[in-house]
Amino acid sequence: MSLRFARFLSTTPTLRANYGFIGLGQMGQHMARHIYAKMEPSDKLYVFDTVPEATASFVDTVTQQKPEAKSQLHTLDAIPKFVTDVDAQLDFIVSMVPEGKHVKGVVSELVDAYKKNPQTGSTTFLDSSTIDIPTSVEVHQMVKKELPEFDFIDTPVSGGVAGARKGTLSFMLSREDHKDVAPDLVKLLNMMGTNIFPCGKNHGAGLAAKLSNNYLLAVTNLAVADSFQLAKSFGLNLQHYAKLVSVSTGKSWASVDNCPIPGVYPENNLPADVGYKGGFITKLTKKDLVLATDCANQYDRALFLGPTARKWYLKACEREDLGSRDLGVLYEWLGELEEKNGEYVDKKTSESFKV
Ligand code: NAD
What we know:
By secondary structure, the chain is of the alpha/beta class. It is built from 15 helices and 12 strands. α9 packs across α13. The longest helix is centred in the middle third of the chain and has 29 residues. Bound molecules: nicotinamide-adenine-dinucleotide.
């Protein structure tokens, strides 16, 4: 019986675990920090980022918070060292890197290293990055072909940097049901987040859920911006209108939890109250919308609102001040546009364009 299968059958997680984490950026540094903070005294955590300063800053932060676990944390300076420079074979290696090409590169290096240094147990690679489904499927097939005992699971997240910081992320993964998620995996995901959503049995189901949801977010956010600009041109009191929407059929995350009208929920310190700084930036919304619409094409699914929304987000992101601020800023931007004979004029830049 393989180690992985034995663990899968077991109802309690193994007592000792070795974790690897790759990509200590805005999201990854917090996810890895929660693993470090919650790991058992017998566990170990190995981390790597291509930017040495990211690793150094991570080590500084976490060892100040929990100095007693310092000896359980190890930094590595190259991917193959997750195989060659560890005390024992790692149970899980999580990647949280920008794009599909980075995931493919990281996992290919790991697979090569494991092939050169054969092990008796199995390692599960978890990829929490938001990437395109075909690349993730290709990486999964490569892992299964080269190292049949190993697994590669797409475990994308929602909750943003705030959720990563608080440890309240939701994980979406390609498993049919909760009973199909191994106890060790549940334990690891619960260290970093609070919700686990099995999305389907085929590899890529987690990403499919992530992209479908973020497609909905991108389109809804644009509709919310449009609706609030319409209400403004009708001369409505926008703060009162926003409160009405919050208990009406137009209610959504974009219209309420991330309301783009300043001053409606001052107690929540929303991006709209601080000039749309922070939050989930427009560039990342555009990235996910582009991934969703590209994947829809690859899966022969015609999207009705996607192509238009995509053009608006691509256009918005040409302006750095819009791309680098919270997606609620699209409300402000739409108010800066004037329509003349089918062309739009951006009053701030004087540029005219068609969508
Ligand atoms: P980021 O750019 O802040 O961090 C990525 C980190 O990966 C960087 O530190 C970079 O140096 C490192 N890296 C890049 N290539 C690497 C490699 N080959 N090996 C090791 N490290 C490497 O990005 P982020 O905001 O943390 O996002 C990471 C992923 O999570 C992206 O796919 C993003 O779409 C997704 N995501 C982000 C958010 C968010 O709100 N920021 C929310 C959900 C999902």
